[in-house]
């Protein structure tokens, strides 16, 4: 809307003055409204029958876990991801902790992983007394650099954790070969990778174990939640025992024993049926959720490509030119100072953009419990310049356009 054209405001008659003031008031109101409308970094959402399924779970009379909706989620994961066994957990952290138990991690064992990851990747193994050994990442996918792994292996190395950053796959073929050669476990931290694939195989189903997250910041959500995917058949029976607090309760329900009892270590890893009910409704729409996110991702990419071509920023690398599940869209600024300035600029326009991990090797606990293999030059550099842009399931193309317009304005200024 534009203001009516008048000679001068002091020449207006009463009717014209009212028209002028009314137009000006509307323009100001629109500007304030646009300024106040926040583009959040992320936002939890309902996509289908979440509330209906929660009510159904209550009606079923089982809320403590391992009920009908837990079983439905297990079947969905096993069928759609093609894994031998899936077990819901109350978080991806819990799934990683189960992985540490299943691989019999002991005090003094070493576990190779990137430093550019969430704390749970390391803490799950530190709880067992293990030493995380940080290996640098690739500058393109930001995943662990497979070319640096073998030089980090020692006689104490027990496992490698492949973290699929932003849902983009690690080089799993090489990692599997290394693990087979050195008789190591391969664990996938696929927290960000629901339905993403590597050579046609779902991430989380390639290593011995895979760990998924359904935290509210992920593509498919249940508030808090996760899953352990067991791909090594030798680990399935013990996984069920650990999952059930160290008891053989699952075997009892299948009629394999006449009573269940405490048979191994374990803990309370099950989510409630309310969580499983919410999650199952999301899983029913998982493909659609990812498809929408890919559209947003590609819109970001095409809109910001001219800035990248001029050298103002860098865009994420993709495998075969496409984002696997579009979990994250990030840009890499030229300097840490420029990133800070861009975050502040976007915040002033009510657009939330954030940096990502402080590398674990640079954290107080990381310095205490872990060690570094070689240099971490790429990790140190990328962590200072990477900026995550808003991307969530209820985001619209208009929101993406607004964010991109703001970023273009920043660099033009």
TrEMBL record:
It comes from the Bacteria. It holds the Pfam family DegT_DnrJ_EryC1. This is dTDP-4-amino-4,6-dideoxygalactose transaminase. GO terms for biological process: polysaccharide biosynthetic process. The active site is at residue 218. Keywords: Pyridoxal phosphate. Belongs to the DegT/DnrJ/EryC1 family. The modification N6-(pyridoxal phosphate)lysine is found at residue 218. Signal peptide: none annotated. GO terms for molecular function: dTDP-4-amino-4,6-dideoxygalactose transaminase activity; pyridoxal phosphate binding.
């Amino acid at each position: 809307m534009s203001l009516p054209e008048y000679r001068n405001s002091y020449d207006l008659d009463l009717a014209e003055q009212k028209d002028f003031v009314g137009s000006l008031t509307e323009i100001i109101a629109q500007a304030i409204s646009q300024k106040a409308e926040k583009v959040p970094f992320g936002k939890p959402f309902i996509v289908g029958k979440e509330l209906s399924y929660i009510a159904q779970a209550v009606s079923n009379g089982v809320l403590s876990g391992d009920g009908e909706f837990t079983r439905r989620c297990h079947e969905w994961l096993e069928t759609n991801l093609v894994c031998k066994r899936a077990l819901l957990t109350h978080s991806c952290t819990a799934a990683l902790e189960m992985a540490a138990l299943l691989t019999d991690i002991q005090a003094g064992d070493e576990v190779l992983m990137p430093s550019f990851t969430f704390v749970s990747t390391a803490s799950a193994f530190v709880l067992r007394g293990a030493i995380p050994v940080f290996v640098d990442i690739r500058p393109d996918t930001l995943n662990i650099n497979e070319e640096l792994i073998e030089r980090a292996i020692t006689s104490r190395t027990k496992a490698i954790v492949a973290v699929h950053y932003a849902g983009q796959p690690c080089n799993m073929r090489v990692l599997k070969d290394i693990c087979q050669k050195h008789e190591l476990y391969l664990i996938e931290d696929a927290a960000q990778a629901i339905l993403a694939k590597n050579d046609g195989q779902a991430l989380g189903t390639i290593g011995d174990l895979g760990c998924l997250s359904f935290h509210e910041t992920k593509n498919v959500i249940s508030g808090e939640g996760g899953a352990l995917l067991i791909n090594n058949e030798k680990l399935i029976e013990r996984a069920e025992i650990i999952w059930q607090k160290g008891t053989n309760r699952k075997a009892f329900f299948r009629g394999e024993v006449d009573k269940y009892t405490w048979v191994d270590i374990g803990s309370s890893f099950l989510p409630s049926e309310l969580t499983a009910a919410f999650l199952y409704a999301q899983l029913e729409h998982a493909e659609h959720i990812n498809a929408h996110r890919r559209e947003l991702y590609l819109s970001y990419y095409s809109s910001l490509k001219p800035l990248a071509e001029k050298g103002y920023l860098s865009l994420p690398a993709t495998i075969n030119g496409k984002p696997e599940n579009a979990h994250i869209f990030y840009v890499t600024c030229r300097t840490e100072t420029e990133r800070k300035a861009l975050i502040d600029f976007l915040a002033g326009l009510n657009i939330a953009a954030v940096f990502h991990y402080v590398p674990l090797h640079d954290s107080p606990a990381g310095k205490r419990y872990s060690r570094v293999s070689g240099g971490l030059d790429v990790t140190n550099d990328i962590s200072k310049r990477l900026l995550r842009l808003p991307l969530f399931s209820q985001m619209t193309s208009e929101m993406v356009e607004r964010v991109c317009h703001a970023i273009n304005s920043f660099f033009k200024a």
